[in-house]
Specification:
By secondary structure, the protein is an alpha/beta fold. Helix content is 39%, strand content 14%. The longest helix is centred in the first third of the chain and has 24 residues.
Length: 231
């Protein structure tokens, strides 16, 4: 009986250690995105603009963080979220809507603030397409400040930065559906140049241009299927 009590006590004391060990073994994922990946109260930094709110929206049925695509992915894959650096309306390049200077929110500006992830999921280029940002020329180094107001040079700099600043991380670029073909082709070409895997989304249901509950699940399904096929 004493031995049984001892083993029970030992098991109870070991549970936290087992939990910590399992936690340490979990892959850490950073979400690097635009409005599609935002949710109130979950962004780093918390000053980033939000599109999905905890109180919900009248034009979209996503109301809970558990409904976001990235939450579903991390739950189904057993990952830990390092951070969600998403910013509503953000462009890869420095040109935003109405030709405004979007440098503060641009992906190339936010790129150094992605934590220490094992995996980086990049959901970008939607606003560059919607805002009609200049496409520019393919260029893979020595970018000028002016060139970074165009998509192709900025996209190349972002991909270069992801590879050089996070060399141990697996990077997946998730490309939205229904974008301009010039944007799609640029993303394909530049991702191939840097050896970054690309997932082109299909059949994503949207409300007000943003994934609905069904759309979020569709994105999550495609991301999870991508990683399961890689195993």
């Amino acid at each position: 009986m004493k031995n049984i009590k001892y083993l029970l006590l030992l098991a109870i004391f070991m549970l936290p250690c087992v939990a910590q060990a399992a936690d340490k073994d979990s892959l850490r994922v950073t979400i690097f995105g635009d409005s599609y990946s935002t949710f109130e109260g979950y962004l780093t930094p918390d000053t980033n603009e939000v599109w999905y709110f905890a109180k919900g929206r009248k034009d979209n049925d996503v109301k809970q963080v558990e409904q976001t695509w990235w939450w579903q992915v991390k739950e189904r894959m057993g990952w830990k979220v390092d951070r969600v650096n998403a910013y509503s309306g953000s462009t890869v390049c420095c040109t935003g809507y109405g030709k405004a200077d979007y440098t503060p929110r641009a992906f190339i500006t936010r790129m150094p603030n992605l934590g220490e992830p094992d995996i980086i999921l990049v959901c970008a280029a939607t606003n560059d397409s919607w805002a009609g940002a200049p496409i520019g020329e393919y260029k893979y180094g020595e970018w000028t400040k002016e060139e970074l107001f165009s998509f192709r040079p900025a996209m190349a700099k972002m991909c270069w930065g992801l590879c050089s600043q996070y060399p141990k991380a697996k990077v997946l670029f998730i490309l939205n559906s229904e974008l301009k073909e010039s944007i799609n082709e640029s993303v394909r070409t530049i991702c191939k140049h840097y050896g970054i895997d690309l997932l082109e989304l299909k059949d994503v249901d949207k409300q007000a241009g943003h994934p609905s509950v069904a759309g979020m699940k569709a994105i999550a399904d495609q991301v999870v299927n991508y990683f399961k096929k890689k195993k």
